[in-house]
Amino acid sequence: MFLVLDESGTFSNKKQRYYIIGGYLTNDLNKVKSIHRKKEAIIKRRKKIPLKANVEFKAHRLLPNDQAMFINAITEESNIHPVAIIVDKNSIQNEISENGAYFIYLKLLIKKVINQFNLKDCNLEILLDNRTFNEKHKNEFLLETKYFYDGRLSLEFLESHHKREIQVADYIANFLYVKYNKDEQKYKTRIKNLDKFFIVII
Prior knowledge:
Elements: E1 2-8, E2 18-26, H1 29-47, H2 64-75, E3 80-88, H3 98-116, E4 124-129, H4 135-145, E5 153-158, H5 164-181, H6 185-188, E6 198-201
Parallel strand pairs: 1-4, 3-6, 4-5
Antiparallel strand pairs: 1-2, 2-3
């Protein structure tokens, strides 16, 4: 199984109430990449961008209809499950660093996903958008995560510019960031299958 995640917003941004880590769980990463490739081609043709051009369409720069196109195509697949943790920063009383918050809530989301989807004995590959963490932090994270996980666990940081799977996680996390922080109807009304989202709110 693959758990692909990205964050939206920054924990230290006091102007936005909610901090998001979101993405999806799937057993078929090739299906995700294929969907992204097909939908990306639609945007490239409209913008007259060569299909072979390596262009990353970041979520915050997409039109609402285009972002919805990606997410709706993903949620139509029975083996792709959007997941996220929504952190209400107003409820946090202790000071937490940016990196500390990321790992705290990342671990909590992973634990909830493992329990929700009964993944205790599965091989789980966690793919994250690249961050400036060294091997020591990575190994500490894996060690702590294995306390509540019995299967084989791996963790990899990927550059979103070159990885379609991370870009899809970006679209999901950004949609939820806008939904909770801005409550913009133009985004919510275009997204189907919201009941398929597994969301942890704290």
